[in-house]
């Protein structure tokens, strides 16, 4: 959804705010990250009905954080092929772009979701639904590192 250009090299030196989304049919996790510290933290989990969120809730978060761009986790199969959920996640990313005019990037989530669930199992978070926000945090951290280093996966 995006390409690297000279603007990315200039923006690598300034702090950028990233909102990361972990798309799901029943819930969508949200995290905020920044390129300066290469860190991210979970914010919230939106309830969704068949993958459709209450768009006004997302709009409120966008207004509060004013992100430079958004990241949506892309749930590919382990062999890298598309899954039914990856098609739906792409559609969600396109809707974010269409509704809000934000730059949206996709982030391979194959290992991020597993890492988030592993951290939850170790007691880092208590509620099961937090795994969506934790996964979104992983995407935000990965994209923060990539943007700061001037690379895009």
Give the SSE map.
Elements: H1 6-11, E1 17-22, E2 27-34, E3 39-49, E4 52-53, H2 55-65, E5 69-74, H3 84-100, E6 104-108, H4 110-121, H5 130-149
Describe this entry's structure for a reader.
The chain is an alpha/beta fold and 153 residues long. The chain has one domain: Nucleotidyltransferase, domain 5 (2-Layer Sandwich). It has helices at 6-11, 55-65, 84-100, 110-121, 130-149, and strands spanning 17-22, 27-34, 39-49, 52-53, 69-74, 104-108. β1 (17-22) and β2 form a beta hairpin. α4 packs across α5.
Summarize the entry for a quick read.
The protein is an alpha/beta fold.
The level-1 CATH class: Alpha Beta
Which of globular, elongated, flat, extended, rod-shaped describes the shape?
A: globular
Order of strands across the widest beta sheet?
4-3-2-1-5-6
Element-level helix/strand string: HEEEEHEHEHH
Helix content: 40-55%
Superfamily at the CATH H level?
YqgF/RNase H-like domain
Number of helices: 5
Q: How big a fraction of the residues is strand?
A: 15-25%
How confident is the prediction overall: mean pLDDT?
Answer: 79
Rg, Å, rounded = 14 Å
Query: Would you identify the regions where 5 or more consecutive residues have pLDDT less than 50?
Result: 2-9, 123-129
Largest sheet: 6 strands, mixed
**Distance N to C terminus:** 11 Å
Give the structural class: alpha/beta
How does CATH name the architecture? Answer: 2-Layer Sandwich
> How many DSSP-defined strands?
6
Keywords:
alpha/beta; Nucleotidyltransferase, domain 5; six-stranded mixed beta sheet; 6 strands; 25% strand; globular
């Amino acid at each position: 959804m995006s390409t690297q250009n000279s603007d990315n090299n200039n923006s690598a030196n300034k702090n950028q705010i990233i909102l990361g989304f972990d798309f799901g049919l029943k819930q969508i996790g949200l995290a905020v990250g920044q390129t300066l510290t290469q860190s991210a933290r979970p914010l919230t989990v939106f309830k969704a009905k068949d993958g459709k969120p209450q768009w006004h809730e997302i709009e409120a978060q966008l207004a509060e954080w004013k992100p430079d761009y958004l990241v949506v986790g892309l749930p590919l199969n382990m062999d890298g092929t598309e899954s039914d959920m990856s098609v739906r996640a792409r559609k969600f990313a396109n809707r974010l772009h269409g509704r809000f005019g934000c730059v949206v990037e996709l982030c391979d989530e194959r290992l991020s979701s597993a890492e988030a669930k592993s951290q939850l199992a170790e007691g880092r978070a208590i509620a099961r639904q937090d795994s969506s926000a934790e996964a979104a945090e992983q995407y935000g951290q990965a994209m923060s590192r990539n943007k700061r280093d001037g690379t895009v996966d």
